[in-house]
Specification:
This protein is α/β, with parallel strands linked by helices and 339 residues long. The protein is 28% helix and 26% strand. α4 packs across α5 and α4 crosses α10. The chain is globular and about 60 Å long. Bound molecules: zinc ion (ZN) (2 copies). The site of one zinc ion has 9 residues, from α2.
Length: 339
Amino acid sequence: MIQVILAQPEKIEIREVRQPRPAAGEVLLKIKRIGICGSDIHAYYGKHPYIKCPIVQGHEFSAEVAELGPGVSKFKIGERVTVRPQLTCGQCYQCRHGNYHICENLKVIGCQAEGAAQEFLAVPQEIVVKLPDSINDDLGAMVEPLAVGVHAVGRLSELKGRNILILGAGPIGNLTAQAAKALGASSVMIADISDIRLEIARKCGVDIAVNNLKQDLAKEIKDRYGEAKADAIFECVGSGKTVELAINLARKGSEIIVVGVFEEKPVVDFGLIQDRELRVIGSLMYKEEDYDTAISLIESKKVQLEPLISRHFSLRQYAEAYKYIENNREKTMKVLIDV
Ligand SMILES: [Zn+2]
Ligand SMILES: [Zn+2]
């Protein structure tokens, strides 16, 4: 079978390898669709802090069950599925306390373990998630990034009836905004410096989209939400500048959720967090229930994923896909690989 490997930064190789067999408790998956995400792009340029080459990428994907390892009874051959790509130890403090998504020994498929950029992949049955018929292969590959948004929203002390500001209208910002709205926020404002991304956010039903290069974001917030400003801010970019913006825009005593992945160490004025009694909360990936919620949001059409799909490439065109993203940074949201 064909396997695509990121051998070194910016160097993708296609190689012929033996098709894996599922071990006990594993399911062999025939990969259908793979999404390329921001963290893949960081890794492609050798700039992801926690992903090293060589690596077979692909952590957001849909697939079909091809073979069952000994002891697997929950799945049937041919069933359509996606995967929650977290390989956890089951032993550490976090795993023992239900927080396996921040397992001390966490390995993410496609990041620190072999990913889906190949025709077949064997994974433990516990992380395989069935897809309903109403969710096609494209959307099935987007359950993962939507679950990131669902989890991020769940990190708030309270969502219902609140006014939410999202900084960054890339795929994660967009999906966090949509998750916030779908799960009960009163109003969601999204800010970015790209009109293209803001237009996509509008298409997806986000209430207010602000270009913070062209408009005064602080004023927009005040106009819409009054002196209460936003009740919570999500940082979905992963840059020091955006964290600084979040801190400066935040109402005293409010919450900032950090969702973005940082290429570089951000410089942050921690004194303001103390002085304004801000609550800064991290958000990493998701848990099983976030996948369930993401799937039900897609099924019930409470979120719109199609506007995020920028282009499709074949498995052999992985390198072209990255070139395309490089040349179309601003207008690219989600590039999908058809396997
Ligand atoms: Zn991702
Ligand atoms: Zn663990």
